[in-house]
Batch of 4 targets.
Target 1
Amino acid sequence: MAGRPRDPGIDGAVIAAAADLLARQELATLPMEAVAERAGVAKSTVYRRWANGDALIADTVDSLDRPPPGRPGASLAEDLARFVESLRPVARLLPSLNLLARRNPGTQTRLVALIDGRRLFLEEALARAESRGELRDRPDSTSLLHLLIAAASHDASETAVRLLIRGLRATEAAQ
């Protein structure tokens, strides 16, 4: 006799609860009891799906690993604005994920892959801007990614994108 089918909504609720806890404070471990309480499920429900906090953290990081939605924008400003919006969930969790990555190589590997994927998307956006003639000199994608993550984490994305575009144009005009 098979048991009751799993409710797929519970997985999403638990991952969202884990992300919320990680975003609210810098955590070196993920308290499963607090996750269960925040998700509105029993602790046993969480443990049936994830053997431990590290497994839940892995799925939480994996849930963040998606490219910005939609097609590329018509300009670098559009691409960067969409990109920064897609970075918000990642930026909210970075303080905790950095702590967790120090003690868990699996989390470190996932975090590096997540950031590298975002950097590659940014490089594609910069290449498109360069081909449209929006950039004369291409900025370093890693440094630009760090700036955009900082902007996303402080709800300053619109201002950051506007200043970046203005700065890139000023650099072009000065040459």
Target 2
Amino acid sequence: MGKVGDVHAAGRRGHAAALVSGGTSGKGGGLQVLAVRAADNPGMTAPRFAPVPPAPRAATRYLGGRRARAFSSGLVAEVWAANGALHESWQAEIDDLGLTPTEAFVLRRVVAAEEPTATQLAAEMRCSRIDVKRRLARLVAQDLLAFGAPRPPDGRMEIAVSERGRWVAKELDRRETAWMRRLLRGFSGAELEMLEALLARLATRANGASSARARRGA
């Protein structure tokens, strides 16, 4: 299971969310929120983004003392368990393509972006440029990407997508949609709406805490 690092909240109307680990190593993490359109899930209504209700008064007792530690430990364990299970499930979906979830993310990000740099990808994935370049090199070796000539004046190397790379990216989109449909089958629109709102809220707080620690350490 990859370490929790970045959390990408879906945060878009008409989407439902699920956690999946990007599986990065070192400083990077891979907790992401992948989105699937509500319209793509039969019987699922589009979230209206109602505000998340406050916790019941009885639940606030868990915010102090030993109960807080027990509650938080259980919550962290559940998040990690979901993260690991979804990571393994997504890996099984794309294993025959010879990619890891993180490599699949990088490929799709390069296809979707206009001339992304290793620095931009590293910032999004919360990992080092060296780690990103290693993953890019693996994608180049599989004939999915290609490095261009360095551009003056900064010497930044262009990243081009091969025809096979574009086909694989489309195949990843197709498989992700089918995978998410299976995972979300049976959930009500209200449950999916609440799940997305809670994950987005948790992501915002986690990213805010990371930024605060970085400022204190600067």
Target 3
Amino acid sequence: MAKLERTKTSYHKDDLRQTLLTEARHHLIEVGPDHLSLREIARRAKVSPRAPYRHFESKDSLLAAIAAEGFQTLTQQFRDVAVSEPNERLRRMARLYVEFARAHPAVFRLMFSPVLQRLEPEGTAMIAFEQLVAVARDLHPPGFGLRHWTTMATALWSGLHGMATISNDGASTLYSSEVFIEPEALVDAIVRGWRYENPTT
């Protein structure tokens, strides 16, 4: 047993967690969430079969961590949009959302699966959503209020999510056709539809 243990790779605690997440993402792409195996991930990371459980108590907690990391990446991409004009900032965020979904379809599906809502209480999805709410607030005067901004952000997110899902789930021909609008055009249509008088005046 001692000889076997010496063949394993030695990691700093944080490094091992990140290595396990990286290997898990690769494995997820290959087999999907239902067939993801902690033992196989440990083999790829060159650690003992029990090592993943020091960081993730179950397969679901590992999947939730992958999903949360996806939202964190998306949030950072939203924050990195260096445009002050809110409508153009929103258009670029829309493009980023769809491009992220198309570049990482397995992780994107996982981000909206029940596993994250059950096991990830920190609200990484809500933090990403709040980036859209912030732009909606910049687009409309303060008098419109939080309910108005969140409703607009929900409409934007729903439309973009539908667009990304159509693109990923077997309808890529439709997505690339002339009849299917670009993410920026979807933003423009929703923003135009929300330009009405302040209901509080």
Target 4
Amino acid sequence: MLTIVGCQMKEKLRSHSLIAVSGCKNAGKDSITSMLQYCLSVPKMLRQYWIYKNFRKWVSPKYKRLAFADPLKRMLAVLLNVPVSKFNNRHFKEDCVINIPTLDYSLSAFNEESDVLSDSKFNKLVKNLDSSLTQSNLTVRQLMQYFGTNVMHTFFGRNV
């Protein structure tokens, strides 16, 4: 499911448009954002899909993409000593396994199902604040979710 919400904000003689896009993982949030940036930056006659596919790299967007996860990605990139650009790679987020006690990561596919927590088991452990989670292997996506909610809320409060 993909949700798009738009609103206008006025601040000291400047008008700002805000469009929020939300959805589940791999729902196409970045794709829709890229298309919106293109469509809002070109004249109406150039808003055809075949033109977008072929010429979007030459159009400088008038609007900026912001993501709540960007600061989180920068923090975890420093912690894991990897480039921030890796966090935008689906293969890295889904298939890379991180050993939580040592923060070592392996890009190779895990051998056994028990090596990494399933999403349902992970969600159950997070919900119950189970301490065994800190001794587990997690995918990068699971680590981002845990770090962004549980760790940041614990140390910096619920308004992070």
